[in-house]
Amino acid sequence: MLKEVYYPKKEMFKNPAFKNMCEYKDLVEEFEKDYEGTWSKLAKEKITWFEDFKQTLDTSNAPFYKWFVGGKLNVTYNCIDRHLEDKKNKAAIIWEGDNGEKRIITYLELYRDVNRFANLLKSLGVKKGDRVVIYMPMIPEAAYAMLACARIGAIHSVVFGGFSAEALKDRILDAEAKIVITADGAFRKGKPYMLKPVVDKALEGVDIVEKVIVVERNNEDINWVEGRDLSYNDLIINQDDKCKCEIMDSEDPLFLLYTSGSTGKPKGVQHSQAGYILWAQLTMEWVFDIKDNDTFWCTADIGWITGHTYIVYGPLAAGGTTLMFEGVLTYPDSGRAWKMVEEYKVNQFYTAPTAIRLLHKMGPDEPKKYDLSSLRILGTVGEPIDPTAWKWYYEVVGGGRCSIVDTWWQTETGGHMISPLPAATPIKPGSATFPLPGIFAEIIDEEGNKMPPNEKGLLCITKPWPSMIRTIWGDPERFIKSYFSTAKKDGKPVYFSGDGAIYDEDGYIWITGRVDDVINVSGHRLGTAEIEAAIKKHPLVAEVAVVGRPDEIKGESIFAYVVLKEEDTIAEEIEIIQEINAIVKEEIGAIAKVDTIAFVPGLPKTRSGKIMRRILRAIAKGEEIKQDTSTLEDPKVVEAIIAVVNKI
Length: 648
Ligand code: WTA
Description:
Domain Acetyl-coenzyme A synthetase N-terminal: 24-79
Domain AMP-binding enzyme C-terminal: 530-610
Mean pLDDT: 96
Bound molecules: 5'-O-[(S)-ethoxy(hydroxy)phosphoryl]adenosine
Protein name: Acetyl-coenzyme A synthetase
Helix content: 25-40%
Family: Belongs to the ATP-dependent AMP-binding enzyme family.
CATH superfamily of the domain at 517-647: ANL, C-terminal domain
CATH topology of the domain at 517-647: GMP Synthetase, Chain A, domain 3
Largest sheet: 8 strands, mixed
Radius of gyration: 24 Å
Distance between the termini: 31 Å
Strand order of the largest sheet: 12-11-8-6-7-14-15-23
Structural class: alpha/beta
CATH class of the domain at 517-647: Alpha Beta
Number of strands: 31
CATH architecture of the domain at 517-647: 2-Layer Sandwich
Domain AMP-dependent synthetase/ligase: 81-465
């Protein structure tokens, strides 16, 4: 932990939402005094409603909370239509392709493009409540697709383009999607790559998907299935550019986004209309201080929640300009990010610590070659940021002028939960600082007692909030089990995030990372259970346990302990490693590549057969084993495992 405190440079901010900590505390107090009243006031002020809501919060069926009950709205009306009056020619999306190609889409153009896409979906029979899977590269049409669904009340489920056919198939089946929207492929590091063949494979044996809409982006040859596959490029030109928006209820689902949990298959996190869009917009104003003339750049992929909230919904609801890019930040060289900041005069730059570490390593002096004076706020998300990366980000990228907002949140929370306010909060590098006003994030024990400083506890959110997950699609019991069965406060179950955290003496929150079996590789959330299930498909694997191991760039890397069925196969280890990784790639995708495989004679288990993962985590980290191993079924196995790991 760095001890220094960094104060915001006030001159960088004109009229921020919070000028100082007193203003922050005032709003926190207002929420404490009148929780529902304060949310109600904000919802009335920020959302353009077709019909006012009747009740702010309905807790009658907790933890299935309902917000702004009875309210009617459309999210795309809030993201597009209401801005047409005074911003029709303002850039809504600025897009840069992998090859440097550029597109600027104004609000009026976005309105027309989204309407055409919405009409196309309607012409295919898509109705309110139908699920549409979006498997797309980072092109503007991906955003149009999301918004087109929202316009007609269809529920989108975006699947990250790096997931494999198997992973895509699981998500299509779980959501029971009727339509898949994809592209032939796109470009990455100057070369075309393909998506459509993955969709073809995912749909083998699947009969619920009626149509596949293909956006032609890289124009490589693809297979067209008669009667199923449709060219977006051909059909879109004939669509009417006006489409009345569907009147949605506050609580109708807006989208599903699958994410990993500690057990089983990924779960479909379901978000609502009103609560979600309110918080997406508010956090853009509070945390990113978005102003009319700003260019806001979030480098995430739309396949993750960060891309949903801070590339598409948040910036547009706030009437901002969102910069979207295809490719990677390190191609053509490690100056691409900084070149883009200079060229588009980016004001807020939002990325993950893994990207900061990589950019730092590849080009420590690269930012100095560009004019980065437009930057005002630098954001980070996805994992704790280490002091070295933080200092470089602050000093070299931000020139010591910019506020760093270390935002803690999750797929399930919809938007930021704990974060500095850029013009107000004194920052301690590596701390996400304090909960945002209205968010009751607390570090507690299982009974709800607040942890004293410097003692690790469970990071919980003890009151419902508007942008929270509503349920797990099709599995309400799992929703309760995953989030509301670990901790209680005042006898009532509260939301548990899966993260551990610590307060320091000044009440700052320090996230220590997941306390469950979820790992965080390059800011991507993966469940050890899913990876284990994939590895078990190898015919020679008898048992497997996967843990995360600290990694200099990726945050964590994947470490697998594998017990083979026949010991004499050890000679073919290298082949087995390759085969295992091929299976993982097929089942999940390249993002789940196993970095280290240790072939061990057995796993440490309790007498009741439970694998002692804590021991395996410690061995992978090279730490001393503190646990008592004498109660294990076979205490000697620990030494044998250490001997194997030491040889790797
Ligand atoms: C981790 C990403 C430390 C955390 C928005 C959480 C963080 C998981 C931070 C959610 C942060 C996110 N500091 N850790 N600022 N932000 N995390 O659902 O472990 O992909 O539970 O959402 O990322 O990952 P998810």
